[in-house]
């Protein structure tokens, strides 16, 4: 996740559409994923993400008040998604477990571990239970605070702590096992 | 299970959420569990391995086509630029242009910052900072500001931290009073519907003049100048700091509205001030609902939706009135 969000925020506040597109490219997929996890309907999730970005652009004059644009985006996605759910409350209540989450791929720039190893890790991440995977992703990859994830998913901070712990434990076990079984490893 | 506890603590350590007590606990647990201690480095490695969702380009493009038409042409100025009506007209009409006083070498360009609700921080061209409370307007002429004087007009409430600049006095016009500053921090409350203009000095020194009077304020002093009564009825009082060492007059500056197991009626009071709205409850039972939380940058709509997540109620926003129903 890029770390020049405040810079983008300033440019968008000044009406810079290029900066807005950069923000979009950076957050479209993560926000879509969160929306999907809440509404579990692809079409609806896409509409929600579009609504979020349109709202950001329309209210860009207020952007200087938002101290944390990233959180603002996630919170807006959650709020709009909950609105959709309320509007379509006649449809069944959806659980995170049913949400379809996208596949993971390895960032090729990462040189920390071999390509093969990264594939294993990412496959392992893909095998985590959906809620666990989403929480882990929001904390580790999107850099959200435990408190923020708890608010987004309407769960307790304890649950976030537990799920991150479980994910880490499972992944580490898997990786330790893989390293031990690789030729040449001691 | 203590083993799971280690993993929870490791997660908190990697994500930077760990407290020093938990950090000590983790080191202790790791000493007792060499197995986990050995895989700690693996775990750290996993944490540092960037993963990335497979971006669905087609899907991203599809959403973008819905968003893009909503983007109007570029606008460069972040702040609302309000040209004086005459000046704006002058630009398009030669006739009025003739009527515009020609001796005026530069057209005044009025910079206006307004906050309808919430708070906003404004940095003025000289580096001075103004925190605007809700429903507040601050205006200055961009062309003349800082040349001889630094002159601004305020309606509403603001806290100022004025940059020192000897030779260019800072002057604030608020209601019937005028405040001269050289470099200091103070709060001015001058809403049009207030019965007085309140000036509270935090540090430095300011002189407040109104009609033919001038009052010099010392730090932690508050001056109240009534709007309707004769200006001689002003009050100069010394303020006491509250338990947190802050002057109550500037507590609105704290960026958050915090409520802890507050009854809805209490919370509604706080939110009324925060957002400048009025609450109407359908039944007293609703007023007894209790909430805990923090409102930060959320809009009233977002804040109410957040509250709905913990207790069932309905709301309707109609202008400045909020109706809470069962």
UniProtKB/TrEMBL annotation, chain A:
Q: InterPro entries from the xrefs?
A: RNA_pol_sigma-70-like, RNA_pol_sigma-70_dom, RNA_pol_sigma70_bacteroid, RNA_pol_sigma70_r2, RNA_pol_sigma70_r4_t2, RNA_pol_sigma_r2, RNA_pol_sigma_r3/r4-like, WH-like_DNA-bd_sf
Q: Which GO terms describe its biological process?
A: DNA-templated transcription initiation
Q: Where is the RNA polymerase sigma-70 region domain?
A: 29-88
Per the UniProt record, the source organism is Chitinophaga jiangningensis
Q: Which Gene3D superfamilies did the record assign? A: 1.10.1740.10, Winged helix-like DNA-binding domain superfamily/Winged helix DNA-binding domain (1.10.10.10)
**UniProt feature coiled coil, ranges:** none
The residues forming the signal peptide are: none
Give the GO molecular function terms: DNA binding; sigma factor activity
NCBIfam families attached here? Sig70_bacteroi1, sigma70-ECF
Q: Which family does it belong to?
A: Belongs to the sigma-70 factor family. ECF subfamily.
Domain RNA polymerase sigma factor 70 region 4 type, chain residue ranges per copy = 121-171
Transcription as a keyword of this entry, yes or no, is yes
Top-rank taxon, per record: Bacteria
What is this protein's name?
RNA polymerase sigma-70 factor, ECF subfamily
Protein keywords: Sigma factor, Transcription, Transcription regulation
Q: List the taxonomic lineage.
A: Bacteria, Pseudomonadati, Bacteroidota, Chitinophagia, Chitinophagales
TrEMBL record, chain B:
Give residue ranges for domain Protein FecR C-terminal. Answer: 256-324
Locate the transmembrane regions by residue number. 79-100
Q: Which Pfam families is this protein grouped with?
A: FecR, FecR_C
Q: What are the protein's UniProt keywords?
A: Membrane, Transmembrane, Transmembrane helix
Name this protein carries in UniProt:
FecR family protein
Alphabetical list of InterPro entries matching this protein: FecR (IPR006860), FecR_C (IPR032508), Ferrdict_sens_TM (IPR012373)
Q: Which domain of life is it from?
A: Bacteria
Could you tell me one molecular function GO term of this UniProt entry?
sigma factor antagonist activity
Q: Which organism is it from?
A: Chitinophaga jiangningensis
Q: Where is the FecR protein domain?
A: 117-206
Does the record bear Transmembrane in its keywords? yes
């Amino acid at each position: 996740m890029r770390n020049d969000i405040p810079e983008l925020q300033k440019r968008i506040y000044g009406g810079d559409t290029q900066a807005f597109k950069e923000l979009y490219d950076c957050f479209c997929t993560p926000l879509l994923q969160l929306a999907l996890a809440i509404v579990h309907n692809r079409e609806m999730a896409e509409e929600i993400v579009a609504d979020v970005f349109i709202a950001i652009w329309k209210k860009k004059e207020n952007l200087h008040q938002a101290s944390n644009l990233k959180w603002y985006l996630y919170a807006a996605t959650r709020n709009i998604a909950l609105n959709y759910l309320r509007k379509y409350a006649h449809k069944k209540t959806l659980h995170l477990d049913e949400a379809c989450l996208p596949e993971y791929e390895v960032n090729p720039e990462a040189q920390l571990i071999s390509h093969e190893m990264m594939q294993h890790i990412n496959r392992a991440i893909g095998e985590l239970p959906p809620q666990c995977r989403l929480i882990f992703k929001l904390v580790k990859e999107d850099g959200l605070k435990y408190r923020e994830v708890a608010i987004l998913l309407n769960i307790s901070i304890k649950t976030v702590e537990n799920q991150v712990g479980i994910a880490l434990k499972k992944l580490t076990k898997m990786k330790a096992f893989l390293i031990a079984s690789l030729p040449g490893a001691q | 299970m203590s083993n799971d506890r280690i993993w929870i603590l490791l997660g908190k350590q990697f994500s930077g959420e760990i407290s020093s007590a938990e950090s000590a606990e983790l080191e202790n647990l790791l000493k007792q569990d060499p197995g986990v201690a050995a895989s700690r480095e693996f775990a750290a490695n996993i944490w540092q391995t960037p993963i990335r969702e497979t971006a669905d380009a087609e899907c991203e493009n599809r959403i973008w086509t819905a968003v893009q038409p909503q983007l109007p042409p570029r606008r460069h100025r972040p702040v609302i630029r309000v040209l004086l009506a005459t000046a704006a007209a002058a630009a398009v009409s030669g006739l009025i242009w003739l009527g515009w006083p020609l001796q005026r070498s530069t057209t005044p360009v009025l910079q206006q910052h307004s906050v309808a609700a919430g708070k906003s921080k404004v940095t003025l061209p000289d580096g001075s900072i103004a925190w605007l409370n809700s429903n507040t307007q601050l205006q200055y002429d961009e062309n003349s500001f800082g040349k001889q004087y630094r002159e601004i007009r305020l309606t509403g409430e603001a806290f100022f931290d004025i940059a020192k600049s000897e030779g260019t006095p800072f002057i604030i016009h608020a209601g019937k009073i005028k405040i001269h500053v050289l470099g200091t921090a103070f709060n001015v409350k001058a809403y049009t519907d207030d019965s007085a203009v309140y000036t509270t000095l935090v540090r430095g020194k300011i002189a407040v003049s109104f009609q033919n009077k001038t009052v010099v304020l010392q730090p932690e002093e508050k001056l109240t100048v009534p709007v309707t009564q004769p200006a001689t009825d002003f009050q100069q009082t010394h303020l006491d700091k509250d338990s947190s060492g802050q002057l109550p007059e500037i507590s609105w500056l704290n960026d958050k509205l915090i409520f802890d197991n507050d009854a809805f009626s209490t919370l509604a009071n706080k939110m009324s001030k925060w957002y400048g709205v009025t609450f109407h409850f359908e039944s007293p039972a609703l007023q007894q609902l209790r909430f805990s939380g923090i409102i930060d940058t959320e809009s009233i709509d977002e804040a109410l939706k957040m509250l709905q997540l913990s207790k069932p109620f309905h709301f309707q926003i109609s202008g400045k009135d909020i109706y809470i129903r069962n």
